[in-house]
Write a structure and sequence with these properties.
The chain is an alpha+beta fold. The protein is built from two helices and six strands, in the order H-H-E-E-E-E-E-E. The longest helix is centred in the first third of the chain and has 37 residues. The radius of gyration is 27 Å and the shape is elongated.
């Protein structure tokens, strides 16, 4: 009986070692594939820096606030300033408009455009039918190339980087 137990114990140890080797080889293959994907210069699903990720997040937040403003005011505001609120009357759509994270990038630049009208929903202020919001990415990511980009009411133009 002791011989059978020793054989079973040795067989169990050998099985554990074989399974461990298979797992290690499998995870090494996964690592190699991950490195290959991340080293591909054409693979741009994610920004290369936390600052660029923050810039894209900031621009999307500003765009959302502008759409909420548009729904209440019937147009886009005449000015949007970093560090200030986007508000219509007593309704605020942002705590503050974010500023470009340093290092790199550029100041977010908002410019109203299109037809000017007067909004009665926001206390008789001028509103515009569209806007442009310029920002700069230092590296490619989120389907956007490095360079200056333009966001409008239609979205972020992926071809505007240069």
């Amino acid at each position: 009986m002791d011989k059978i137990r020793k054989i079973i114990l040795i067989a169990g140890i050998i099985l554990v070692v074989i399974l461990t080797i298979i797992m290690v080889l499998h995870f090494r293959q996964i690592e190699k594939n991950a490195v290959r994907i991340n080293s591909n210069p054409y693979y741009t699903d994610t920004p290369q820096s936390t600052e660029d990720y923050q810039r894209i997040t900031d621009v999307r937040q500003i765009m959302t606030a502008l759409e909420l403003y548009y729904n209440d005011a019937g147009g886009y505001p005449a000015a949007v300033t970093s560090g200030q609120k986007i508000a219509c009357g007593t309704t605020s759509y942002t705590d503050i408009v974010p500023t470009n994270p340093l290092p790199g990038g550029m100041t977010y630049t908002y410019m109203p455009s299109g037809i000017v009208s007067t909004s009665s929903g926001c206390g008789n202020v001028d509103v515009y039918s569209d806007y442009t919001l310029k920002f700069k990415l230092d590296s490619s990511g989120e389907g956007l190339s490095a360079g200056i980009h333009t966001a409008t009411s239609r979205g972020i133009d992926p071809s505007s980087g240069f």
